[in-house]
Amino acid sequence: MSEDHQKHRSDSLLWSPSTGGGGKSFIGRTHFPPERRGKQAEVRIGPYSRGADTWTLKAEREEWVRIRAWSRETGKDPRELRKEEKLKV
Question: How many helices (H) and strands (E) does the chain have?
Answer without folding.
Answer: 3, 3
